[in-house]
Design a protein that fits this description.
This protein is mainly α. It is built from 11 helices and no strands. The chain has one domain. α1 crosses α10 and α8 runs antiparallel to α9. About 50% of the residues are buried.
Amino acid sequence: MTTTTILMLVLFCMGASFVQRVSGFGFGIFIMTMLPQLMPSYGEATALSGMLAMMQSLFVAVRMRRHICWKRLIPILTTFVIVSYFAVMFVSSINDVMLKRILGVTLIAVSIYFFFFSQKIKVKPTVPTQIGMGTISGLMGGFFAMQGPPAVLYFLSSEKTKEEYIGISQAYFFIGNVMMTVFRASNGFVTEAVGVAWCYALPAVFVGTWIGTLVFNRLPIDVLKKIVYVYIAISGIIALS
């Protein structure tokens, strides 16, 4: 890896970790705007994103473990694991150029959804809802390493406090990314290049998480989110060009 590539990787990992710690999601969405351009293949980019997000979520989930309700987590998590397994397998059979274009459309759609509609759409925390959201999350996680939006929509409705929301969402992302890393490794996406990049980027993940923790209760989160959503939309347009 060149010095420029390493620097870009470190900076984007810090930014993704910061966003994830402050808002409870967004690591994959943020970092996948750049990783496909830094890694040898799209599949390796999703593998690296998942492995880094896994460590970030573990750090937060352990701190919030007392607030996790496993009864509300298991159905959506089980559905996610099953669906993501087949989605990861499908990635290996699709052309990288096509995947990047689909990613571009997805980034634009996600940014529009969160910018205009996320506060207006509410879901009931029922088992059918868990299965539905787990299915969508599994598809987005397997294809794009960004399983957050559907899961976050459910957890915001099912959890009563900020601590419960952060705890259950980070446990979901950690376990889900562990399983997807296994799936991606079995499909040949966890390569030497991924391992080298992971070693460079991991310290940046913890630095970004630490900074996010410091400003968690001080930053106007709504302003940060809008900036991130605009950035995501622009990245989606670039991916389509």
